[in-house]
Amino acid sequence: MKNSIRVQRAIKNITQAELAELVNVSRQTINTMESGKYIPSTVLALKIAAIFGVSVEAVFELEEGD
Amino acid sequence: MKNQFLLPAKFRLIGWVTFLLSFALGILTESYGYDIPGFQIYYPKEGSFAGYNLTNELAFLGTIVGLLMISFARHINEDELISKIRLESWKWAVLINYAILLILNFTSYGLGFVFIVTYNVLTLLLVYIIRFYYSLYLLNKNLKNSED
């Protein structure tokens, strides 16, 4: 699964730490997600999309092999 | 992330203290024959009473409970990533534990086997703790390496 968290963060101008605090996870979790090593739960994906004010599909998308 | 079956974070420290003290007591009692004076149970035997010292039982209890507290203490940043690392670490621990047991099965026998299996009880928790904290260490290292 691909995600555009880094891009969305840049648009919103918030750091990993700020996003982590907003969705109530650790900074490590955001960092690991951005590098594609961790697939978040549905709840976390929905929370992140809500923070950015976009739909989940705008942040997360399937890639080949999923 | 509710209902995770974990202890409060401070149990990590309490667990380490309990484990280290009990482990030291275990070495003292197993290798040097130290018994806590008066820490006995008495039971009737052949018209009189016989005593049995409970020092090694206490050491074993403390060692296991200490390791359990370290294993089940909530991480300060407990979230779904940490939960995933916990699960992975348990898988590793169970596999390695039984791998050791199977190797012992073919390399030792009799009382020696029973003696080593006593310590095999601890490997599950030890491997879990080592794998879990090593993963957290790698996680923090990656975080430091990547710019924000």
UniProtKB/TrEMBL annotation, chain A:
Q: Which UniProt keywords apply?
A: DNA-binding
The protein's matches in CDD domains, at most eight in alphabetical order, are given as: HTH_XRE (cd00093)
Q: Which residues belong to any copy of the HTH cro/C1-type domain?
A: 5-59
Instruction: State the InterPro entries in the record.
Output: Cro/C1-type_HTH, Lambda_DNA-bd_dom_sf
Write down the Pfam families for this protein, in alphabetical order: HTH_3
Q: Which GO MF term does the entry hold, naming one?
A: DNA binding
For this entry, the protein name equals Transcriptional regulator
Whose protein is this, by species? Pedobacter ginsengisoli
Upper taxonomic lineage: Bacteria, Pseudomonadati, Bacteroidota, Sphingobacteriia, Sphingobacteriales
